Amino acid sequence: MLVAFGIFAQTKIYRGNSTSYFDCLYTLKDDKVYRENSTSYFDCVLTISGNKIYKGNSTSYFDCIYTIEGNKIYNGNSTTYFDCLFTVNNGKIYSGNSTSYFDCIYTIDKSKVYRGNSTSYFECLVTLEGTVPDALVAILVRPF
Predict the structure, then answer these.
(1) Which CATH number fits domain 11-141: 2.40.160, 2.60.40, 1.20.1640, 3.10.20?
(2) What is the pLDDT of residues 82-106, one digit of tens each?
(3) CB-based contacts of 82: which residues, under 8 Å, 6+ apart?
C-alpha cells in the first residue's frame, strides 16, 4: 500500500455508472480533491500531503481527518487499532481492521466501485475516470 499518493493528473469520480458532466462528484488534481467539475481554490474539499488527508486547503495538524498507514485508514492523526476506519485488501474495502467477507463494504473492479461484495450494475456507487488509489476511494465513497 502506498504511503504517499503523489500528484494526480486530472481525474474525475462520477455518480453510479455515469460519466456525464452533470454526474461528476469530485475532480482530483495536484494532490487536491475538488467538488464536482471545479478546480477552484474555493471548491477544494480535501488536500493530500504524504500519508495524511486534510480538510479543505489546509495541511495543519489540527485539520487532518485521515491517516493512511500500510493498508489501513485511520481517523485523524491516529494510527491506533481502535481508530482504524477501513482496511484495503485486493480491491476490497473492509470495515475497521477486518478482512472478513461479511465486513466488505466496497468492491473496486476496473473503474467501478460497488456496494459490498457485489459487482452488479445495480450496485455501482461510483465510476472512476483515471487512476485513484484504493485508500482514497474508501474515503471519497464513504458518504454513499
Answers:
(1) 2.40.160
(2) 999 999 999 999 999 999 999 999 9
(3) none
